[in-house]
Design a protein that fits this description.
The structure is a homodimer of 109-residue chains.
Chain A lengths: L5 H10 L3 H14 L2 H9 L5 E2 H8 L3 H13 L3 E6 L2 E6 L3 H13 L2
The structure holds a DNA duplex (30 and 30 nucleotides).
Chain lengths: 109, 109
DNA sequence: CGTTCATATGTACATCTGTTCATATGTTAC
DNA sequence: GTAACATATGAACAGATGTACATATGAACG
């Protein structure tokens, strides 16, 4: 640390959200920060899918997909619906698409 | 794997972006997926800051901040400008704010 | 030149993360 | 009840990640 920033820091600290909110924000983006989960979300763009269809699509084990779906569900990004033996997952709301769209814009320009 | 999904999968595969793009998307969100980096970006909302101001604000070592700034710079999220001995960092473009804003909306409702 | 200040970088280490394997749960059909 | 299928879950392990420490680079000044 070095020269004086106290005025600037005071102003910024006042405008920064609470630590807990910033933590939650980081945790949310962490969920988006994995290719497998991004792929799952993209796959659900057109509608619901069962677990085994997703694992077939991504060519990954059912267990791996199930674990990732749990992560997505805990972050309220996907919802599940049971139909007989199968579980159908779908995107929870439009936020998923708009968050991905914003990221997409950043990297493609 | 189990019952047949070949039709569904064919359709979805056609509409999915390239693997490389999905990887890049994940990598981008990974950068947002850390509280320290989120805090740095929020701190830069109001304008540029030098490294030691940021490290004082977040109460972290200069080294830690420098490493994180490098990560942010590599992802084209912040830019740097030298003025004498100091380096001033600022947000590269409005994408940072809009991505964070979308995440913010998701967790606060 | 050498000194001081601001920042960058390499390394090491503890922690976190994603996948696999094995197994448990839950549903349907017999 | 049992068998078969779809999914969930726990444990273990390899690989990635964030920080601190030590040190290097670069700029300003005498």
């Amino acid at each position: 640390m070095a020269h004086d920033h106290s005025e600037l820091l005071k102003k910024i600290k006042k405008d920064m959200p609470e630590d807990e909110l910033l933590q939650d924000l980081g945790d949310l983006f962490k969920v988006f920060g994995d290719t497998t989960r991004i792929k799952i979300m993209y796959a659900l763009y057109e509608g619901e899918m069962c677990v085994c269809a997703i694992s077939e699509l991504l060519n990954m084990t059912q267990s791996a997909i199930s674990h990732q779906l749990k992560t997505l569900k805990d972050a309220n990004l996907v919802s599940a619906r049971r139909e007989g033996k199968e579980m159908y997952y779908s995107l929870s709301d439009e936020h998923v698409k708009s968050i991905i769209a914003e990221g997409y814009e950043h990297i493609t320009e």
